[in-house]
Amino acid sequence: MSEAMLSKVRKLLAQAEDAACTPAESAAFTAKATELIARYGVDRALLAARDPTTDPVGDRVVDVVAPYARDKAGLLAAVADPLRCRCVRRPAGQGFTLHLFGFASDLERVDLLFTSLLVQAAHGLAGTVVPPGEHPAAFRRSWLAGFARVISERLRVAEAGAAADRGTPSVALVLADRSDRVARRVTEVYPRLRSAPIRRLAGSGFGAGAMAGHRANLGHPDAVGGPAVRPHLGGPDAGPAR
């Protein structure tokens, strides 16, 4: 991401996170930052269509550790898929290893957003009271599921809007081709890949997590250009990693 673009995103996110902002002002700043990140993805895709060397297909491995390893892996998948990346989840001790596939610019965007959203999820969970009589781990898992669902929906809308702004049919073809190339790369590495079974959650936190997902900033100024930070979610009562 160019320094000029990073500067704009940093300023918008700093404004959105200012405690003096009203919710409406914060939402407006966040929406603009999300729009810039999505537009960057489309611009890089069009540039790579002309010169493939500028944005090659690649992969990276992300370790997701306990507690709530499965839930954090779900959040990563919720961010990766709208940004035309794919992830393969592999068990690793008490957590998981996520093998991410995508174009270099899209992997960069996934890392930026996932790092930020983990921090925001940790803050959101810390500020949410578990209803009396409900198991904390069950509530928090369902909270994280709601958070991830809304984040994924918001990213899909932003990506579709950035593509539509370019106004040419060729954009859709370029983006579809990128998705196909990433999918082929995954198949080459994992020819016998299986889909994970649908997970059933018992907690009542989905709605509260979804509301937090609507409020979340889709990016974080401290995460841009720096190493990924994997914050701790939960506490002594967090329960097993998965």
Describe the structure.
It is a single chain. The two termini are about 35 Å apart. The chain has about 240 residues and is mostly helical. The relative contact order is 0.20. It has helices at about 5-15, 25-50, 70-80, 105-125, 135-165, 170-190, 205-215; strands spanning about 55-65, 85-90, 95-105. Helix 2 crosses helix 6 (about 170-190). The chain is globular. Residues about 220-230 and about 235-240 have low confidence and may be disordered. The protein has a three-stranded antiparallel β-sheet with strand order 1-3-2. The chain has seven helices and three strands, in the order ααβαββαααα.
Number of strands: 3
Compressed to H and E, one letter per element, the order equals HHEHEEHHHH
Roughly how much helix do the residues carry, as a percent range? 55-70%
In spatial order, strands of the major sheet run: 1-3-2
Please tell me the overall pLDDT.
79
Count, helices? 7
**Judging from the principal axes of the Cα atoms, what is the shape?**
globular
Low-confidence stretches: 220-232, 235-242
Question: Beta-strand level of the residues, as a percent range?
Answer: 5-15%
Q: Biggest sheet, in brief?
A: 3 strands, antiparallel
Supply Rg.
18 Å
